[in-house]
């Protein structure tokens, strides 16, 4: 080849070296996903082959030259049932297998570390619990389950890491979660896969999976001061939350210590699990999540806290093991305890 | 070739077109634009849909050209977004949804059931005008800025964040939707009321069964997209808060409503094709379709089940996991009737006497490509797999396999099959076979690489992409140019054949359907006298007796 | 004709679905919103529509019995009742406009964040829920608006039908037009029969 | 062609050839019932019944609708086909609502 045309050769070389046929398997879920894909591929190839075999062999056997006179056949119930049952069976296996995989991918293990993702036109922002911020990049340790809690500030986006075989829609107004456990250190693609406007194709970034040691170094090297929870604490004080959620017996609101992860009895009789989405929602729409035994006096904080702020608050409440810190802030920011600062702006029209 | 073909053309030296037919009954533009004849309306539709196809196809060509290089140097990002939105909207709402029902259905249904016309000829003409009006809105929207929402109009993007001509586009679809509704209505009533004496339900060609199923979907599903578009326009124009998360609305609700129509609509796009395939397979195998009842009922089953599966487009969009389960299961169920059909067609060839004319070649490519497309659909329907595959080029490949490889192939099969009936002339057979092969090769070259690049993770609707995907994209673009030849070729030779094609005679394929028992092109009133049907569908023995006392052309 | 009505069912179906879902979500807002409906107007309108349905049915009957005069009389009555309905509806809309209850164009939550003087027992809605009354009113205007549009179309067709009936059509045995129009009219009536309780009544008391 | 076959064809015709004329008396009766229903719902809405208010109101509305459909719209006297058509319409309507609700209701159940 080489002596025929160097240009052609170069071209081919480049061509082939740029022809990946299979994405890297870089998360603990990827092998499972690929195994399932293999199954689907197999039944598809099998089904296609059966059809092709029928069509080709009949075309050869019964073409007009060989078989000038057609023999009329009505049909066959036996055959009909066979080719109803077999595909149905194969499809149902696919359904069960797929469902199991789905729940595996969308149900984070309880010990996962949490990273917040905010999507907006057209960038990704990641917020680590330690307060590190990243734009269009995400550093994660290998060998550790990482849960992403994601929200969009404007339109639908979708957070996709092909190498990890995970993807989840990022929705305005609601947290969604996805988790993965990276297995191989490396840099992988991060795509926004839901069409989100002009620069949709620029809403990309990279996932850097690093060994736990490297990750440790990275976190240490890129802290920007206070952690998320610390930010949250500050907000908790300045927004006046502490005045009602002081944890003392005569407080207007329930104590928030250790509330995360537990179950709450609601005023309308239902029982909910307190997760990130619930915390966010109660801050914005307290009336829709009335805790039993309290009156609906909590003001809405819609339009007053940014998504980042909400994330900090949520992170703070999640880590609130006792009311000690709340009392601390209470003592330091006494001004706000008199009247909750927020409702003033809440009166009248709040419209964008 | 002469031994292996079923074409029995009349002796060409003496043959002539019938003196009187629907084509030369009246002349002048007015006689076309105000016609109530279903056959002329079909031809009007043919012109308009082909017109829209060229627009959509041009957009596709630009998309593929732009994706030749990873940087997307050809057009700017927002132009690219407009291109694929135009491509999707035009191709779906103004080409594929109307093409099969309105062109082939309009032409064939009355002929096949032995009726003079459809039940409401005026309504039929009105639907064409609605369609054209909708199309004009759409063209207006495209010219005045275009729209860049994608064909799915996802809220809140379409309501609050883009500033292109979404309202115009939505209105266009809204109006065209009424055209679909009226067509569906017309067909249902026609099939119920106007069957010739003796044409019982189980003597109807399978073509009619599948059009019946299609019409049901038209009538029941289209209004839902109409209302969701109304909501969308209201929200965009005056800012009501039904889908807007900041006002307490749920943006997902729009998708529920949208897909409640659009999933059944994908079966609108395939069922007519399945009807065509049944006819063609039977004719060119010279055999009754294997398992007639199974095929007939599977059409209806597809139509019914298609209403239960819409949320499979939303598996990762934030619907609840439980409901994802339900919808995934239903999707698996709806895939089965399609499998039944595929197997029955294949089995029809068993012990047949097969010839390989152009329609049959297109049928083969339908069977192969639709099977691949459908099975990849099953992959998408499997929850865990969908997470990885959704919103990538895998989906793009899936739906082009079913829509282009499936339905467009079937339409081409049908067009070639009925071409002699419509025009009275044959298309050039050798060119036809060539075009069918070119299409098949070009198609696979275009879209098979997209499966791979999709599994690699390349997202759809991307104006530029990481360089390692380039090779596959180059292949795909190369395929698209072959594909373009494959489409332009039939356009050319079909036009050519209008004047120079061989005279076809009334039944060149020696097919058994009622439509083949009249002259081609048929009379305006279709049948000189009401036919009485005393034979089963695909009754080749009856046909053999019949041909002994040769069919006559009137006039 | 029935097939066409199927289409209509599904057309309204989309909106009813939306209504149901948001009602579950934002129950208090829907209650508060419906407190602002003018109940006498709604009741009156329901009655008007039912009357018009009755006169329509009688019109069809007169066509069946080939009684041109009666047909004309009943059709005209139907027409008047239909116009009456639209008038009352317009009055209501005007009222809602005055109260700033039209989302998107003219909306303010102030009516809902304070205690409603007519329902002193009810508490005022907290701000976040008050915002959600917009959803209620959006749906209210959509549902009634689309319904009124249907009435408007119905009235226009009715004019046409009356004109033909006046010329003596329909009373000679060919009455499909009247019959089908009757079906349409009854359908529009049925939609209102559901809209009335959903929008006006079922939250009266909480 | 045998007479039997002709019948078979005619049976599937949706027109009500053997038109059953509903007498004005029945119309008046239904009319009265509808007015009564309206009065009842309005009255019922002023009685505190908790969740039952909605049930009662919708129950009455459904009854009224059924009356209109059966008598004013002649479905009671129409062919099986018409009945089937009407049923199909309501069926899809129910499908739309219930299947959407599967999502909305079970969302609150949270993750697995
Ligand atoms: C003509 C149009 C058409 C048709 C017929 C289909 C048919 C099917 N589609 Fe497809 N689909 C689309 C058009 C169509 N689709 C479009 C346009 C989109 C994307 C929309 C967008 O987002 O822009 C889409 C997207 C789409 C999705 C959403 C993906 C996502 O967004 O995440 C899913 C998921 O379930 C899906 C599934 C299916 C299934 C299960 C079928 C089934 O009906 C297929 C049934 C057929 C077969 C199964 C093949 C025959 C079977 C055999 C021969 C048996 C084989 C034998 C053995 C296994 C032994 N489709
Ligand atoms: C019926 C439906 C239909 C048809 C027939 C096609 C046909 C084709 N489509 Fe289409 N496609 C869709 C429906 C369809 N598509 C939809 C619904 C989408 C999703 C849109 C969205 O994301 O919102 C899509 C998206 C889509 C994409 C993804 C864009 C993206 O996500 O970024 C691509 C990319 O390759 C593509 C390519 C093609 C190609 C190469 C063809 C070819 O088959 C076309 C071949 C035809 C021609 C090339 C034209 C023939 C030439 C002439 C008629 C001559 C006249 C022209 C000149 C003289 C210039 N399509
Ligand atoms: Cu964000 Cu696409
Ligand atoms: Cu679908």
Automatic annotation (TrEMBL), chain A:
InterPro entries, sorted: CcO_II, CcO_II-like_C, Copper_CuA, Cupredoxin, Cyt_c-like_dom, Cyt_c-like_dom_sf, Cyt_c_oxidase_su2, Cyt_c_oxidase_su2_TM_dom
Encoding gene per record: coxB
Compartments (UniProt record): Cell membrane; Membrane
EC numbers, comma separated: 7.1.1.9
An example Gene Ontology biological process: ATP synthesis coupled electron transport
Cofactor: Cu cation
Gene Ontology CC, one term: plasma membrane
Pfam families, per database record: COX2, COX2_TM, Cytochrom_C
UniProt entry tagged with the keyword Membrane: yes
CDD domains linked to this entry: CuRO_HCO_II_like_2
An example Gene Ontology molecular-function term: cytochrome-c oxidase activity
Annotated ranges, domain Cytochrome oxidase subunit II copper A binding: 110-221
Organism: Alloacidobacterium dinghuense
Name the UniProt record assigns to this protein: Cytochrome c oxidase subunit 2
Parts of the chain that traverse the membrane: 36-62, 83-103
TrEMBL record, chain B:
Single GO term (MF): heme binding
Domain spans labelled Cytochrome oxidase subunit I profile: 26-534
Keywords (A to Z) from UniProt: Electron transport, Heme, Iron, Membrane, Metal-binding, Respiratory chain, Transmembrane, Transmembrane helix, Transport
Single biological process term from Gene Ontology: respiratory electron transport chain
Record membrane topology: Multi-pass membrane protein
Name this polypeptide is given: Cbb3-type cytochrome c oxidase subunit I
Superkingdom of the organism of origin: Bacteria
Record field: transmembrane: 42-63, 83-113, 125-143, 166-189, 209-233, 253-277, 289-310, 322-340, 361-381, 393-419, 431-452, 472-494
Record localization: Membrane
Any Pfam family hit: COX1
Keyword Iron found: yes
Protein family according to the UniProt entry: Belongs to the heme-copper respiratory oxidase family.
Family annotation (InterPro entries): Cyt_c_oxase-like_su1_dom, Cyt_c_oxase-like_su1_sf, Cyt_C_Oxase_1, Cyt_c_Oxase_su1_BS
One annotated Gene Ontology cellular component of this protein: membrane
Keyword Iron included in the entry's annotation: yes
Signal peptide: none
PROSITE patterns: COX1, COX1_CUB
From TrEMBL, chain C:
Membrane-related topology note: Multi-pass membrane protein
TM region(s), chain numbering: 6-25, 37-59, 71-91, 139-163, 183-202
Example GO molecular function: cytochrome-c oxidase activity
Heme-copper oxidase subunit III family profile domain ranges (all copies): 1-204
InterPro entries referenced in this protein's UniProt entry, alphabetically: Cyt_c/ubiquinol_Oxase_su3, Cyt_c_oxidase-like_su3, Cyt_c_oxidase_su3-like_sf, Cyt_c_oxidase_su3_a-hlx
Chief place where the protein resides: membrane
GO BP: aerobic electron transport chain
UniProt similarity note: Belongs to the cytochrome c oxidase subunit 3 family.
Name of the protein in its database record: Cytochrome c oxidase subunit 3
Lineage, opening ranks: Bacteria, Pseudomonadati, Acidobacteriota, Terriglobia, Terriglobales
TrEMBL record, chain D:
Places the protein is found: Cell membrane
Listed InterPro entries: Caa3_sub_IV (IPR011743), Cyt_c_oxidase_su4_prok (IPR005171)
Chief location bin: membrane
Highest taxon in the source lineage: Bacteria
Record keywords: Cell membrane, Membrane, Transmembrane, Transmembrane helix
TM region(s), chain numbering: 26-46, 52-72, 84-105
Gene Ontology CC annotations of this record: plasma membrane
Membrane topology annotation: Multi-pass membrane protein
Protein name: Cytochrome C oxidase subunit IV family protein
Source organism of the structure: Alloacidobacterium dinghuense
């Amino acid at each position: 080849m080489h002596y025929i045309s160097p240009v052609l050769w170069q071209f081919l070389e480049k061509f082939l070296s740029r022809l990946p046929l299979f994405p890297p398997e870089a998360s603990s879920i990827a092998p499972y996903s690929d195994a399932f894909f293999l199954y689907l591929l197999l039944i598809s190839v099998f089904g296609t082959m059966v059809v092709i075999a029928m069509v080709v062999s009949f075309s050869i056997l019964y073409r007009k030259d060989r078989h000038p006179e057609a023999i009329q056949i009505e049909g066959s119930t036996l055959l009909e049932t066979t080719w109803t049952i077999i595909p149905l069976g194969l499809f149902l296996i696919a359904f069960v297998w797929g469902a199991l995989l789905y729940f595996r991918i969308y149900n984070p293990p309880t010990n996962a570390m949490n990273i917040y993702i905010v999507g907006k036109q057209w960038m990704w922002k990641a917020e680590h619990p330690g307060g590190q911020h990243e734009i269009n990049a995400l550093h994660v340790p290998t060998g550790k389950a990482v849960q992403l809690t994601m929200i969009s500030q404007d339109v639908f986006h979708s957070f996709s890491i092909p190498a990890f075989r995970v993807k989840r829609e990022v929705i305005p107004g609601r947290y969604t979660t996805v988790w993965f456990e990276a297995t191989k250190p490396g840099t992988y693609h991060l795509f926004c896969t839901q069409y989100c406007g002009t620069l949709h194709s620029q809403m990309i970034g990279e996932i850097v999976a690093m060994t736990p040691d490297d990750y440790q170094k990275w976190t240490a090297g890129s802290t920007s001061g206070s952690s998320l929870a610390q930010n949250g604490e500050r907000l908790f004080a300045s927004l006046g939350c502490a005045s009602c959620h002081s944890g003392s017996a005569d407080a207007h609101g329930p104590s928030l210590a250790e509330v995360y992860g537990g179950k709450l009895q609601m005023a309308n009789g239902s029982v909910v699990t307190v997760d990130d989405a619930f915390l966010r929602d109660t801050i914005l729409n307290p009336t829709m999540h009335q805790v039993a035994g309290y009156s609906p006096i909590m003001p809405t904080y819609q339009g007053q806290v940014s998504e980042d702020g909400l994330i900090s608050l949520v992170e703070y409440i999640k880590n609130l093991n006792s009311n000690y810190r709340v009392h601390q802030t209470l003592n330091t920011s006494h001004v706000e305890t008199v009247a909750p600062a927020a409702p003033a702006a809440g009166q009248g029209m709040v419209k964008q | 070739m002469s031994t292996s073909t079923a074409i029995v053309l009349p002796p060409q030296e003496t043959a002539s077109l019938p003196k009187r037919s629907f084509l030369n009954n009246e002349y002048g533009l007015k006689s076309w634009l105000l016609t109530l004849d279903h056959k002329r309306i079909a031809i009007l539709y043919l012109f308009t849909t082909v017109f829209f196809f060229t627009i959509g196809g041009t957009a596709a060509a630009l998309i593929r050209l732009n994706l030749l290089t990873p940087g997307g140097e050809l057009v700017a990002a927002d132009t690219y977004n407009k291109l694929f939105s135009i491509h999707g909207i035009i191709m779906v709402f103004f080409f594929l949804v109307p093409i099969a029902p309105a062109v082939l259905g309009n032409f064939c249904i009355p002929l096949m059931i032995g009726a003079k016309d459809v039940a409401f000829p005026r309504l039929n003409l009105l639907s064409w005008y609605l369609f054209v009006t909708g199309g004009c809105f759409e063209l207006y929207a495209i010219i005045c800025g275009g729209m860049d929402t994608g064909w799915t109009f996802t809220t809140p993007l379409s309501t609050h964040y883009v500033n292109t001509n979404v309202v115009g586009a939505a209105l266009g679809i809204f109006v065209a939707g009424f055209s679909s509704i009226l067509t569906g209505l017309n067909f249902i009533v026609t099939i119920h009321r106007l069957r010739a004496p003796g044409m019982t339900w189980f003597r109807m060609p399978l073509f009619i069964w599948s059009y019946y199923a299609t019409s049901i979907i038209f009538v029941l599903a289209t209004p839902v997209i109409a209302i969701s578009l109304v909501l969308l326009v209201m929200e965009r124009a005056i800012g009501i808060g039904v889908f807007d998360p900041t006002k307490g609305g749920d943006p997902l609700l729009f998708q529920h409503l949208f897909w409640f129509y659009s999933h059944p609509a994908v079966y609108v796009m395939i069922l007519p094709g399945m009807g065509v395939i049944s006819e063609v397979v039977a004719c060119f195998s010279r055999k009754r379709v294997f398992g007639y009842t199974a095929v007939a009922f599977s059409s209806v089953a597809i139509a019914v089940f298609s209403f239960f599966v819409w949320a499979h487009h939303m598996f990762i969009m934030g619907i609840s996991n439980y409901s994802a389960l339900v919808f995934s299961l239903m999707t698996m169920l709806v895939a089965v009737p399609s499998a039944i059909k595929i197997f029955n067609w294949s089995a029809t060839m068993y012990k047949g006497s097969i010839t390989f004319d152009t329609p049959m070649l297109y049928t083969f490519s339908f069977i192969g490509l639709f099977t691949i497309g459908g099975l990849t659909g099953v992959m998408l329907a499997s929850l865990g797999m969908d997470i990885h595959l959704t919103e990538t080029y895998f989906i793009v490949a899936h739906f082009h396999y079913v829509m282009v490889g499936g339905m467009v192939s079937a339409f081409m099969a049908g067009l070639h099959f009925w071409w002699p009936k419509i025009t009275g002339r044959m298309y050039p057979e050798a060119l036809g076979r060539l075009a069918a092969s070119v299409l098949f090769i070009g198609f696979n070259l275009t879209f098979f690489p997209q499966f791979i690049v999709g599994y690699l993770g390349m997202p759809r609707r991307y104006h530029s992409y990481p360089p390692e995907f380039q090779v596959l994209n180059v292949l795909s673009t190369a395929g698209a140019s072959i594909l373009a030849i494959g489409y332009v070729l039939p356009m050319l030779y079909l036009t050519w054949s209008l004047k120079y094609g061989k005279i076809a005679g009334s039944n060149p394929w020696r097919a058994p359907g009622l439509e083949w028992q009249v002259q081609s092109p048929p009379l305006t009133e279709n049948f000189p006298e009401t036919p009485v049907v005393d034979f089963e569908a695909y009754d080749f023995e009856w046909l053999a007796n019949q041909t002994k006392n040769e069919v006559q052309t009137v006039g | 004709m029935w097939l066409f009505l199927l289409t209509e069912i599904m057309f309204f179906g989309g909106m009813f679905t939306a209504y149901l879902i948001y009602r579950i979500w934002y129950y208090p807002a829907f209650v508060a919103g419906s407190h602002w409906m003018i109940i006498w107007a709604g009741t009156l309108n329901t009655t008007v529509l039912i009357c018009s349905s009755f006169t329509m049915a009688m019109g069809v009957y007169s066509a069946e019995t080939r009684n041109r005069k009666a047909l004309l009389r009943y059709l005209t009555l139907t027409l008047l009742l239909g116009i009456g309905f639209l008038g009352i509806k317009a009055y209501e809309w005007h009222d809602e406009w005055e109260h700033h209850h039209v989302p998107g164009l003219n909306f303010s939550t102030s009516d809902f964040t304070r205690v409603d003087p007519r329902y002193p027992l009810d508490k005022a809605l907290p701000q976040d829920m008050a915002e959600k009354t917009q959803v209620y009113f959006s749906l209210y205007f959509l549902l009634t608006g689309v319904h009124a549009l249907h009435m408007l179309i119905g009235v226009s067709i009715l004019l046409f039908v009356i004109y033909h009936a006046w010329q003596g059509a329909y009373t000679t045995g060919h009455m499909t037009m009247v019959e089908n129009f009757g079906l349409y009219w009854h359908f529009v009536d049925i939609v209102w029969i559901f809209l009335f309780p959903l929008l006006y009544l079922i939250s009266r008391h909480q | 062609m045998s007479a039997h076959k002709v019948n078979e064809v005619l049976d599937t015709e949706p027109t009500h050839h053997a038109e059953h004329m509903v007498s004005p008396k029945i119309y008046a009766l239904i009319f009265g019932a509808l007015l009564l229903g309206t009065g009842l719902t309005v009255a019922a809405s002023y009685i505190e019944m908790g969740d039952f208010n909605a049930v009662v109101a919708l129950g009455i509305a459904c009854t009224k609708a059924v009356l209109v459909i059966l008598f004013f719209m002649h479905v009671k006297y129409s062919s099986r086909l018409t009945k089937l058509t009407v049923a199909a319409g309501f069926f899809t309507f129910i499908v739309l609502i219930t299947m959407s609700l599967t999502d909305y209701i079970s969302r609150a159940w949270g993750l697995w």
